[in-house]
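Appendix B. Chain record.
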Amino acid sequence: MFTEPWMQRALLVALFLAPLCALLGVFVTARRMSFFSDTVSHAGLAGVAVGSWLGLVDPTVPLIAVSVAVAAAVFWLKEKTELLTDTIMALLLSGSVAFGIIVFSLLQSRPGDIQGFLFGDILAVGPREVGEAALLFVVVGVGVFVHLSELSLITAQEEMAYVCGVPVRRLNYLFVLVLTLTVALTIRLLGIVLVTSLLVIPPAAARNLSRSLRQQILFSLLFGLLGGIGGAMLAYQLNVPCGPTIVLTCIGFFFLSLIAGKWRAVMLAQPCAPRKP
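Structure tokens predicted for this chain:
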């Protein structure tokens, strides 16, 4: 397994992107932005369709461009209209998917790797994708930990962050941009349909065991790493699709953490036995 170059690349991409998604997912779930990441990921289908229409072999650039455009449209419509945020995201999600399906239907030849974009094909990544994943992991990881205090304050009390002089608007837009880029690149790992799960499941599992934001970040990184690496290895052994296997592996860790959290709560609730004189 570990001697095959394509498997080495797959494990490296999982090593970089799975913990990164889990790290961002802590703030995504706390700020109730899971539907936003789902909207951005489904907008990737329109990006892949545009890339195929332009005749590009690798539609990564239009995929990222369309995803960023949809993310910007969410905030523009939120500021310029009286629509609720979930209504805006549902509108853009359904519109981008419908646009992508129509473009694909008009193409004379469809891209052969469309299934990979829909459901993930980490085993087909090349050296360039590994480099992109490593660069994104380093830049975003360092950026998040440098601004961890500001991000935590914005997540918990945005009004208090304004009072404390935190550049809330700039950090919010920067976080959305980073989240959009991460989702767009992680589509190769899990696919458009499943990419949001890597942002939601590890933080949810970490929440079952953690008592502070710091603990949730550490547990989420751990579950993301184990889910990504373990899912890729399990998919290789069972000869099944890698993306869904990673998701089910993360769900398995979620239920294990749920059981462990309930067991710990029961143990802590038991009264301590009095000491004998």
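Further analysis of this model is presented in Appendix C.
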